[in-house]
Design a protein that fits this description.
Shape of chain A: elongated
Strand content of chain A: under 5%
Distance between the termini of chain A: 49 Å
Oligomer: homodimer
Largest sheet of chain A: 2 strands, antiparallel
Structural class of chain A: mainly alpha
Chain lengths: 259, 259
DNA sequence: CTCAGGTTGATTGTCTAACATTCAACGTTC
DNA sequence: GAACGTTGAATGTTAGACAATCAACCTGAG
């Protein structure tokens, strides 16, 4: 047992307590990424529980992506580096549930998207390389096909924004953006039908051009223009159905921020 | 079984497959928050596995906060709304591991913090109510005590920024900010010792005053000033030890999760 | 009739023991 | 030396049992 002494467990929620202890141990660096934890049998003995219970504790960690298991002779449970995409999916799930439970509003999601991506386009203009540009352009070009079914078009839209976010070269902002984008379909499925896809394509193209020109101010302006259009369309769509939700329109003015 | 038909499982990773199926079902709204899932025994029969395996699948979901379980007669497994703080903690864990694995740099974390909080202070100035103001002020006042041990002082710093973020009234931005702040101690433990706490307190006070005055521009300026000081201090601290670690912008390739 | 108290059934939590599966390392044989 | 089988260690899965908990139901005293 490498530098880890388990604390005695209370009567309730044994597996949860085991998971918490191991989690803080991992978080504190008792085991480094890639390193092997004690075997299930060893953990069971150390915590004085059955193997099944120790196993459940490990399952909790594995669900969070903190550990992975492998069978076989050199097998065991290893500290893992959580995969960015899976974390983003979990976050998106949480956001969707919050939305359905009424804990977040469409305004919250859009505001977050807007704040985050505003800076991502700026950073993308400063940091993009040729591969980033190619990825962005591909999404722009492919989505000009007006005969495309809506789901495919939405996928391309996501690909476009994802490529921009990636070009900003900040994994944390990328994670946040990805989650928000994954959650958005649930929140704004109301008004996508009413979008003028040709117009959206032009706006995407403008953003792309500014990023290609390494022009952060232009990119921000183009993105603001894009968001403005989305905002107007959504407001109109909502006004037709429920006039009350004009609360959505109270997005504060965006100011240029630069260092 | 309310409107849910399990798909047959492959041979490998049964519990994981069960978790994924249930997860997408929840995400698709097959069961609403608060609603009850089939019992472990029913799920086991439906998926044609033992109860232990079905249970492990549920454990995976419960680790993500998507379900909670209760014993007793009206017990069972229920769709839950993930708790914001727990999600933030998981995210912070992930970020810390990414940092330790070299997948994110100090620059990434600070940049994200800067982007997010910049807007939070602005929004806080526009949306704060009296309770928010009181919470912020309390953190500011308490941290002026120069005899405070460093850990307590750091807690108050976190409380200050948390209160601001909360006043911005956007759960998603709040979640992102909370995670970043929780992860920050791991990334900038290098230079906190060299901060002039009195000066930091003055900067916090300036931010508070601008928010109290409902002055978003002033709040942003005050925050920028604060971040500028932190940035300088960190740069100086890092220069003394290792001059190049300031721009660790190149992302090393993702390593395999276990050997 | 009402209410206190016990019983019961359903459900999750844990334990035990076993078998299945996988994988690397070690020997053995050719 | 290379091919092949054996073994040991670890996780994955199964089966059955018992413990703990809780709501609903039943029962009997007042």
């Amino acid at each position: 047992m490498t530098g880890f002494t388990p604390a005695p467990l209370g009567r309730r929620d044994a597996s949860g307590q085991i998971a918490r202890q191991l989690r803080t141990a991992i978080s504190d660096g008792v085991w480094s990424p890639g390193e092997r934890l004690p075997s299930e049998a060893e953990l069971a003995e150390a915590f004085d529980v059955s193997r099944a219970t120790a196993r459940e504790g490990l399952k909790l960690l594995s669900a969070m992506g903190l550990v992975v298991s492998a069978r076989g002779s050199n097998g065991g449970t290893f500290v893992a580096v959580p995969d960015s995409e899976e974390v983003a999916e979990q976050l998106a799930d949480a956001i969707q549930l919050w939305y359905r439970a009424g804990n977040v509003s469409v305004r919250d999601v859009d505001e977050a998207r807007w704040v985050l991506e505003m800076h991502c386009v700026e950073l993308a203009a400063l940091r993009r390389d040729d591969a980033d540009l190619a990825a962005i352009k591909q999404a722009v070009d492919a989505s000009t096909d007006l005969s495309l079914p809506m789901p495919e078009w939405l996928d391309l839209d996501l690909a476009f924004h994802t490529a921009i976010t990636r070009a900003a070269r900040n994994p944390i902002l990328e994670l946040a953006m990805t989650s928000v984008h994954l959650a958005r379909p649930a929140t704004n499925s109301v008004f996508v039908d009413q979008l003028d896809r040709e117009r959206v394509s032009q706006q995407h193209e403008a953003i792309y051009l500014a990023i290609a020109a390494s022009d952060p101010d232009g990119a921000r302006a183009a993105f603001q223009n894009h968001v403005g259009y989305l905002d107007d369309t959504r407001r109109q769509a909502l006004k037709e159905t429920s006039p009350d939700s004009v609360l959505v329109s109270t997005l504060p003015p965006m100011r240029p921020t630069h260092r």
